[in-house]
Amino acid sequence: MNESPAAGAGEMVRVAMTILWNGQDLAALPDGSSLKRREATWLGADTTARRPDMPYGVCSLSNLTRMLPRRAVLPTTWSVWPCEPADGPTNMAIDAALLAQAVPGVAVWRWYGWSAPTVSFGRNERVAGRFSPDSLAKAGLTAVRRPTGGRALLHAREITYSVTVGLASEAGWRDAYDAVNHILHGALRHMGVDVQRAGAQPPVAPDGPVCFDLPAEGELVVEGRKLVGSAVWRQGTRYLQHGSILLHDDQAMLATASMQPMDPIPPAAALLQMPGIKDAETARATLDAAVRHALPRDAIVTAFTASASLLEEIDVQHRVFTNADQLWRR
């Protein structure tokens, strides 16, 4: 007997709900449980209708299935590259060079930090009239413009990651974004952090509020407070995602560098506020191990070795990111 479209949709929702609720088998839950009631509501409803009381405020079948983790777009071969803290132009030059040399079949996961508190601006963010070299210097901050999108972000006491990969031609950037966030979500959960993925949000202009003002769809939050801020860029089939996993919430320092009065930035979540995470070094080591654990089961993980051509590309990119005209072009 052929399955009806409604039954197919219901099964897709059931699968989505199972994944969104951390793999719990909804069929095995007691009939009176809240998740069981949610499942019944989903399966008995028009899947194209808005259901704001459902998880994440996402209701249509297309939106729900779009939130499913798509780790299949990522390769099984990974190189992990832990780097020493560096200044803003160096950090961005390395990520841009990795993007320029990304090839299908291999992903590079890079860990890094910042040698001085640095504000990074999104690729197309308009900062003229909001920040200036003088306003940043008075606040004791430096600045760099990212190769990725998004909004202003202060890098200070945090763990920064980047993922670069050559995607299959048919893979969308959102597929990769969902897949990387799924790995981070699993890693933080493995560490005992009660992290969730943010639901749909109204669109924000590139020159809108700062990054940690509110989470974008799919970003990782704890009790509604943003823990991980990420930005992406795609060039053809090459994909870069990088972001900040806060150890401490220092984002309020952005207000001291602003040329205009800035609305208070909502408090962010931070790893060192989480139970069982005692210090920065422990957090870094634990997170690295947890990410490796959260990679696809068939992943082959190797240490990264920088090639001569990559080092040359880093030098080329470094000249771009130290160019003041490039930084203050908008």
TrEMBL record:
PANTHER family documented for this protein: OCTANOYL-[GCVH]:PROTEIN N-OCTANOYLTRANSFERASE, OCTANOYLTRANSFERASE LIPM-RELATED
Name of the featured protein: Lipoate--protein ligase family protein
Domain (BPL/LPL catalytic): residue spans on this chain: 100-312
One Pfam family, short name: LplA-B_cat
Keywords on record: Ligase
Keyword Ligase included in the entry's annotation: yes
Keyword Ligase attached: yes
